[in-house]
Design goal:
about 750 residues, alpha/beta, Alpha-Beta Plaits, 3 domains, nine-stranded mixed β-sheet
């Protein structure tokens, strides 16, 4: 009980300290947190997917189709005037321009005549034509503020009709974005327009548009955005109210619409989806009267461009290329529907409470779980908290920190693991209990004398060994008595394990009838590739005596009779060996753990063993092992493959025997074997060169050999050659065979 209380108080105090540290980080590193939070929130948009829009906003697009038919931008102003007239005749509600006419129309006949010194009387002035049309149509002009002092070239003020009233504003809470210059429409348009609004879209530090300024201060005046001015005109209101709190603007009100903002007067955009979520109509189709009138009747029309050459493409949470005009369409639709997203003034306090609660809950819950349940509960806690934040974001429209709760769960889990490890004794007694049955006494001494935490996980270059009994299903059926079956396995496992340990290997585990072992961990083993292969060959040599022993044992009569009927030996094995980088270390819980290995190199070793059945080989090794061998052995190239779950080609080699004058594993002389292998490897080269007909002849001759040392490989390549003769592979055939199953 005392020890359990000690654990509990340790968890409690650690949780409190961790909460304080995370809260300090939250308070003093807001820019880092906000950036990561924004990225996670973008992913929430992607998870949510597209949602319906109100069908009140239509985009008339100066797209590539329009530019191709009408001509490159800018168009003559009389053409654009015609566009506005046709939209007005289609009974649109209002037109907002996401473009600015900052210069006179150089194609206007009036300007051309004037430059030539000709009489301009009765010559059309396209700028005047467009100005007149603007005065007669429900058009709101667009313009831009220069937000950097160095770029400001024009300092004239825009024309607006709205009256903006600031409520509860003081010098301490005024954080509005300020303009340092303007890019306005030419005078004729400004003087004849009803009103205008800026269309600045300001990306955040990551270059993504997530919010849009509703107001900008310029020359001590406050000006509305294009979207806000359109809403004001639609509602018939004259006044726009800016409501301030302790830390800047909290909301912007136009008539019945109250729009929550951040302290700078920016509204977060609740994007409806990817590009073209809204109705798009090509501008040239309007000019050619090629549209359905009901698509425009009473609608808010925004004129902008999706053409890449006109440089009005932005990055949004949904995609990296998004027309700027559709950002305004999304914001207008947000205002009309009222499904805003915002970070209220109380959000920071809620985030601090959330951090504290989630840390304490995570630590208390995970601390008393079995180690195997921790990953599942960890994911459940993260999933539930993610769902809560997702629901707050899209259902309640409230932006809360996503990163900090996730960090709280992860760090809380790590604290529990660290505390548990702190209370585990890492003495020589523990190490001996882990390795006494796995390694030789010499290796054990190396482990005990090594510095540092032997059990700690680390990456290490090792050689992995897998062996497996063949026909184990038949064996278990014949030896149906569990006691006899276990005795049989013990008779097999004992000499096999002794061979591995004698050669300085570490036995990882017995997996039923299989043995998994490795070399060069936990202690360093020189020439570990050779030691693993020597163990494999010695095991094959040991099978002869072992099978004789089994045949003479009365306990295994049923098995021996079955094997005699099938003309097979009682014990036959397949072995796979691979070398490479793996993670080695103590894995599991504090009470139920083991020193083991994980990684791709391990998986490949297992695959090589299972492929022994396919290639009818006893020992399969990879080229990664073969290239490091120092001893002399006889090899057969088997295949260039990609095994299941991998994409990089791997060479598989069969190890036939030690390279000695007297072969002990096959009833064949060395000269005959070398001759067979030379012929076979010549056929392999023909196969790799796509000379399948020539290779087929050689494989057929080899298969007819009564003393062949592999009963399957020639048939495998015969089948492949026949297939490729009928259906030739691509010209870049690389000889790679792709295994789609484990064996």
């Amino acid at each position: 009980m005392k020890k359990r209380l000690q654990y509990f108080y340790t968890y409690l105090i650690s949780g409190f300290i961790l909460s304080v540290l995370l809260i300090i980080f939250y308070v003093f590193a807001p820019s880092t947190i906000n950036s990561l939070d924004s990225s996670l929130r973008d992913y929430m948009f992607v998870l949510r997917g597209e949602i319906p829009q109100s069908n009140n906003v239509v985009v008339v697009d100066l797209d590539n189709k329009s530019l191709k038919e009408v001509g490159q931008w800018p168009w003559s102003r009389d053409i654009f005037a015609d566009l506005l007239v046709k939209l007005t005749n289609a009974n649109v509600g209002i037109i907002g321009l996401d473009i600015v006419f900052a210069e006179n129309d150089r194609s206007s006949p009036h300007l051309v005549f004037d430059k030539m010194g000709l009489d301009t009387k009765d010559v059309p002035n396209y700028d005047d034509i467009l100005a007149y049309v603007v005065s007669q149509t429900p058009t709101i002009l667009g313009y831009q503020f220069e937000l950097e002092k160095s770029k400001a070239l024009n300092f004239d003020s825009p024309k607006v009709q709205s009256i903006i009233i600031q409520r509860a504003m003081t010098t301490d809470n005024d954080f509005l974005i300020e303009g340092h210059g303007t890019i306005l429409n030419i005078n004729q348009l400004e003087e004849n327009s009803y009103s205008s609004g800026f269309f600045n879209n300001i990306p955040d530090d990551s270059g993504i548009i997530r919010s849009v300024p509703l107001v900008i201060k310029y020359d001590d005046m406050i000006y509305p955005s294009l979207a806000l001015e359109i809403i004001r005109v639609v509602t018939g209101e004259k006044k726009i109210y800016l409501d301030y709190g302790d830390v800047g603007v909290e909301s912007v009100t136009v008539g019945e619409y109250k729009i929550p903002t951040d302290m700078f007067g920016r509204a977060l955009v609740n994007f409806r989806g990817k590009e073209r979520t809204f109705k798009y109509i090509s501008a040239v189709d309007i000019l050619n009267n090629n549209f359905e009138p009901e698509d425009l009747d009473g609608k808010i029309v925004l004129i902008g461009t999706s053409a890449s050459g006109l440089l009005d493409l932005r990055a949004t949470p949904f995609e990296s290329v998004f027309p700027g005009v559709e950002v305004h369409a999304n914001l207008i639709d947000n205002i009309l529907v009222g499904d805003f997203i915002s970070k209220p003034s109380w959000a920071d306090g809620a985030n601090i409470v959330h951090i504290f609660v989630i840390v304490m809950l995570s630590i208390i819950i995970i601390a008393y779980l079995p180690i195997l349940l921790i990953p599942f509960v960890f994911m459940i806690v993260i999933g539930l908290d993610w769902y809560f934040l997702y629901d707050m974001f899209f259902e309640e429209g409230t932006v809360l920190s996503i990163l900090m709760p996730l960090l709280a769960i992860v760090s809380g889990t790590l604290v529990v693991i660290l505390i548990n490890n702190f209370f585990i004794e890492k003495s020589s007694k523990l190490i001996k209990s882990k390795f006494a049955s796995k390694v030789s006494p010499a290796v054990m001494e190396d482990i005990l004398s090594s510095e540092g935490d032997v059990l700690a996980g680390k990456a290490k270059n090792i050689t992995i060994f897998f062996s497996d009994l063949r026909n184990f299903t038949n064996i278990s059926e014949a030896l149906h008595d569990p006691k006899i079956l276990i005795q049989f396995l013990n008779e097999y496992m004992t000499p096999m394990s002794d061979i591995i340990i004698k050669n300085h290997g570490t036995i990882d585990k017995f997996i039923g009838d299989a043995i998994m072992a490795y070399w060069n961990a936990p202690a360093d083993v020189s020439e570990h590739q050779d030691k693993a292969l020597v163990s494999a060959l010695e095991q094959l040599y040991a099978l002869k005596d072992l099978n004789n022993k089994v045949k003479a044992d009365i306990r295994f009569d049923a098995l021996n009779k079955m094997c005699e009927a099938k003309q097979i030996e009682p014990i036959d094995i397949g072995i796979g060996i691979n070398s490479g980088l793996a993670i080695v270390g103590e894995m599991g819980s504090s009470g139920r753990s083991d020193y083991t290995i994980i990684g791709d190199a391990v998986n490949i070793g297992s695959r090589l063993e299972s492929l022994c059945k396919y290639y009818n080989s006893k020992i399969n090794i990879s080229n990664l092992t073969k290239s490091e061998l120092q001893g002399k052995y006889i090899f057969r190239f088997l295949d260039l493959v990609t095994v299941k779950g991998k994409t990089e080609p791997l060479e598989i080699w069969q190890v036939i025997d030690f390279d000695t004058e007297q072969l002990g594993l096959y009833d064949i002389s060395k000269d005959e074997l070398i001759k067979e292998l030379d012929t076979y490897h010549q056929a392999i080269e023909l196969y790799k060169q796509s000379k399948f007909a020539d290779a087929l002849k050689v494989f057929e001759e080899l298969e007819d050999n009564d003393k062949k040392t592999n009963k399957a490989i020639y048939g495998i390549y015969k089948e492949r050659c026949e297939h490729y003769i009928k259906e030739p592979p691509p010209s870049d055939f690389d000889g790679v065979f792709r295994h789609t199953s484990k064996g």
